[in-house]
Amino acid sequence: MGKLPNLVPISDLRQDAAKVLKQVRESREPLIITQRGRAAAVMLSVEEYERSERDKEILRLLARGEKEIAAGKGFDLKTVMAEAKALLAEEPV
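^ that's the sequence the OP posted. Answer follows.
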């Protein structure tokens, strides 16, 4: 059985928003806000939101790379590694 989600009724959020925010930050888990017994919104800490956005961007880039490979586009590993080496050798501005 999977982990049960953290649920908070909107009335609890209204009564003690600071406590709910503290719970979100400390648990690092999404918090589902309910309204009339139904899920209405999801609350995340800023750190978890940013991590999620980075993860999605990585997945988008991987999917694009897969499409390029399937289409016969892209660069061979030797070329990529040479470019990476050159970029890493550049001094910061």
